[in-house]
Amino acid sequence: MRLMWKSVDKMRCFRKRSMFPFLGFLITFLLFFNLYMDDGYVLEAEKRQLGETLMHSANSERYVHTFRDLSNFSGTINVTYRYLAGIPLPRKKYLTIGLSSVKRKKGNYLLETIKSIFDQSSYEELKEIVVVVHLADFDLVWCENLVQEITRKFAHHIIAGRLLVIHTPEEYYPSLDGLKRNYNDPEDRVRFRSKQNIDYAFLLNFCTNLSHFYMMLEDDVRCSRNFLTALKKVITSREGSYWVMLEFSKLGYIGKLYHSKDLPRLAHFLLMFYQEMPCDWLLIHFRGLLAQKDVIRFKPSLFQHMGYYSSYKGAENKLKDDDFEEDSIDIPDNPPAGLYTNINVFENYDATKAYSSIVDEYFWGKPPCTGDFFVIIFNKSTKISRIKIVTGTEDRQNDILHHGALEVGQKSVETKQGRQCTSYITLGEFKGGNIEVNNVDHKIGFDIECVRIVVTASQKEWLIIRTISLWTTQPVSQLRK
Asked: The MGAT4 A/B/C C-terminal domain covers which part of the protein (predicted)?
């Protein structure tokens, strides 16, 4: 009973302390609402919803969601979330970005991370994202102070429904005492990583119905410019293939992408094994249990770790992703296509892997002969602006195409060997194993149906086609309609 009254008293105090900041926040909301109603930041549908919400803002039920309400699976977890800032809009977005943050002994990078997400996104991209910040510290004064900073700096994003800040009360957490001492970790380390698993589980469940996809980030991350556009290209290129987790950083649980429909299962999984191992290890097991055997990681990385001090004891953490690129807009479109070759394939290094942007995937074939080919046949004819093909790898620099030509074709027909183009034009010759052609759409007078690599002289060396990169003159999403 003492524990129960202590918990109730703590929440009563929290409500008392939060009353004046809440009223101040509400006034700020109304001011910014009037200021931005005529601004492009707020879409027409969102304006109507926001107006209705603010008219009823005095109703505290608007600021509380039960876990049951936000999930569509049979298991029940009796958790109540508190909105500290922002209100979800009824329209599903394309992507939710989830951040969980606790008080650090040294440094705080959360505001920089939120700023990077918004600053590195275009206006069109901002329409399709929602950022959810879970302030997961039990220090309620810290949460209150931080949410005031967030609302001051990002008021217009909160009003537009692009930024939410939530908190899960301490009493809903399972016991963090007497945990398993796996891997000989000290007790405080076990407590830290176990609580972190629960923090993420509660965040994942909250985000289940907000969007079609979910991106997991840490609270000390810098984003690549136009990262959402790059993400959409990759997601589009994976249509028709099975995946559970796509990775856009090689560090920890930064840049891990999921289907939102999988979030309830992942949340249950983290809660079930919260004291067994760190979160990033559990994510690997979850992916494997859902039958994605291999890592699917893309290059360049879209997110970079920027924190110098860890959230655990303020220890130094200098980890950096050397595959990160500040500008991701140059990622190729690679419209959907079939790939065929008559070159003898080595093991499982098949033709499709040359068309993929996944790290360490490439085509590898036995020595080609004059006249051998490697052809890409698009599902739909398209305008191509740029083509870049790279052969060989750093550790197999002689497995390049020594003599070859690049061709583009049209007038595809069905044959016994499958669909083929009947007319080709040569764009150029390979030099040093590589070729890049710009302004392709200005050099030819037709929409392209096929891209073909032709071997013009036999070679003794094997052939690696590391990457085939194609850029279109229109968004790849339009090509799939």
From this structure: 339-466
